[in-house]
Specification:
The chain is mainly alpha-helical and about 180 residues long. The protein has three domains: about 5-80, Arc Repressor Mutant, subunit A; about 95-140; about 150-180, no CATH class. It has helices spanning about 5-20, 30-35, 45-55, 80-95, 100-145; strands spanning about 60-65, 70-75, 150, 155-160, 180. It has a three-stranded antiparallel β-sheet with strand order 3-4-5. A two-stranded antiparallel ribbon has the order 1-2. Helix 1 crosses helix 2 (about 30-35), helix 1 packs across helix 3 (about 45-55) and helix 2 packs across helix 3 (about 45-55). The radius of gyration is 30 Å and the shape is flat.
């Protein structure tokens, strides 16, 4: 058996497995639809049903009519599907050489903590840079306000208190921006 499915099929198949693991006795299209619903995307009932029916056509899931609705079950377990996927990757990318696959998996295992550490380090560095930039901008703005003009650091514009509207030097119009 060669499992071949698209991204949405994988999402729906994982939802079906999750619902089965939760010991849901009967799984209908609406149950799967609810399981895959997210803040960003809510899949249409007809889309979920079409994909479930494709999984049935591929003998990955089974469909049984109950009243006017169909209920679905997986035919292939998550573990078996994973094993089949690894066997396919072994043939397709490693010429059947299990040692090469093992070497690749060990490399990925070694990279995982490094990737996590790198991600945390990058976020920390970005925060530090943003904080330093904000602190620097704030100090420069304070200095400029004290000297009589409100300049915005790192920007080619300046608001000056002596260029108010109606000739009033004490009023600074925030909409009037003069290039320096």
């Amino acid at each position: 058996m060669d499992l071949k499915q698209g991204d949405l099929e994988n999402i729906i198949l994982n939802a079906l497995w999750d619902l089965e693991e939760e010991a849901m006795p009967k799984i209908f299209v609406g149950d799967v639809q609810e399981k895959i619903k997210s803040i960003k995307k809510k899949w249409a009932y007809t889309t979920v049903k079409t994909v479930l029916d494709r999984l049935v056509d591929k003998d990955i899931a089974a469909r049984h009519k109950e009243g006017k609705k169909y209920l679905y079950t997986s035919v292939v377990t998550r573990e078996n599907a994973g094993r089949l996927a690894v066997e396919k990757a072994l043939r397709q990318f490693f010429r059947g050489d299990l040692d090469e696959l093992q070497h690749c998996l060990n490399h990925l295992k070694d990279l995982q903590p490094m990737a996590e550490k790198t991600a945390v380090s990058a976020v920390t560095r970005a925060y530090e840079l943003e904080s330093a930039s904000f602190e620097s901008d704030t100090q420069e703005l304070d200095k400029n306000i004290q000297s009589g003009g409100a300049t915005f650091p790192n920007r080619p514009t300046q608001l000056r208190s002596d260029q108010g509207i109606s000739g009033d030097p004490g009023y600074a119009n925030p909409r009037r921006v003069v290039s320096v």
